[in-house]
Amino acid sequence: MRRITLIKGDGIGPEVVKATVKVVEAAGAQIKWEEVDAGESAINEYGTVLPQTVIDSIKKNKIALKGPVGTPIGDGFRSVSVSLRKKLNLYANLRPIKSLPGVKSMYKNIDIVVVRENTEGLYSGIEHEVVPGVVESLKIITEKASTKIAKFAFQYAQKKNRKKISAIHKANIMKLSDGLFLQCARKVAQDYPKIQYNELIVDNTCMQLILNPHQFDVLLLENLYGDIVSDLCAGLIGGLGVAPGANIGDDYAIFEAIHGSAPDIAGKNLANPIALIRSSVLMLEHLGENEVAARITQAVHKVLEKGDTLTSDIGGHGKTTEITQEIIENL
Ligand code: NAD
């Protein structure tokens, strides 16, 4: 039995986590879940959104499956997801964006992998008021983290037989910070002559992704661009309800969907569980449980192709529990 930390999170988190656990167990994975509370649900009991028990549990088990956690806008506590990524040095955020059968979208055959630096950049959240009416937010870019994420991207591309890496930047304006990110990527690229390497400015990248997404293979981005561009990419394959993700470090990994806590549909049995179910597939592959992972992927594809229980975000009228049940029946 493999022990895995389970964080239900806020909003639609508990609904999609419950669905995913059911699917993973029905598929035959030998997992013992260790449930811990983080996010708004933890405040009452622990007085904090990120209790030490969560960190201790992940450090012990090495792997976690996590639902989304809500973060107040403009003030209030710091994002739990961002804190976890920093505390555990989960420096790589991997977001595979692949078209799915039966899901209507602008394009067919999209197959892009977003590799996002996950620990620094403007996401460092180092902000202060200089004088009333003037604030400063620091963008931290280091040679160490930029080289590490570039190496991760090239090693991933080599292992998965991907052909091209595009480093995405705004070094025309942020010459020092994005300039350093690019310098590190270029240096690492020299060690991988079989993988094509090019560079694109982030605003142009957004337009190109809409006009001609098939030109892209692996995208390498610093933290904030990766965050924004991966939501855009999710839109190319049917939206946030189907797009999976993983936060990977040298010692620990947390698997979670790209989407947030979706307060607009929380508690209504409307959430699409497929994004987190596909994140659990990434987790099972990470654990070497490739057969179970493939079984889940096949079942998801069958259910999407049939289209009877699709949730409303992908054009159907199905409920979270209905599509989950159908996936289980197709395992
Ligand atoms: P969101 O991803 O929660 O929702 C954006 C839109 O997509 C909403 O219309 C929502 O209904 C829809 N959507 C998202 N997931 C869906 C699913 N599985 N099925 C069907 N529809 C889905 O983004 P937001 O509204 O900008 O953020 C809400 C909260 O989530 C904020 O507090 C934000 O900080 C937090 N957030 C957390 C994480 C995380 O924990 N990793 C990630 C992003 C946002």
TrEMBL record:
InterPro entries: IsoCit/isopropylmalate_DH_CS (IPR019818), Isocitrate_DH_NAD (IPR004434), IsoPropMal-DH-like_dom (IPR024084). GO terms for biological process: isocitrate metabolic process; tricarboxylic acid cycle. Its cofactor is Mg(2+); Mn(2+). GO terms for molecular function: isocitrate dehydrogenase (NAD+) activity; magnesium ion binding; NAD binding. The keyword Isomerase does not apply. GO terms for cellular component: mitochondrion. Residues 3-327 form the Isopropylmalate dehydrogenase-like domain. Keywords: Magnesium, Metal-binding, NAD, Oxidoreductase, Transit peptide. It holds the Pfam family Iso_dh. Belongs to the isocitrate and isopropylmalate dehydrogenases family. This is Isopropylmalate dehydrogenase-like domain-containing protein. It comes from marine sediment metagenome.
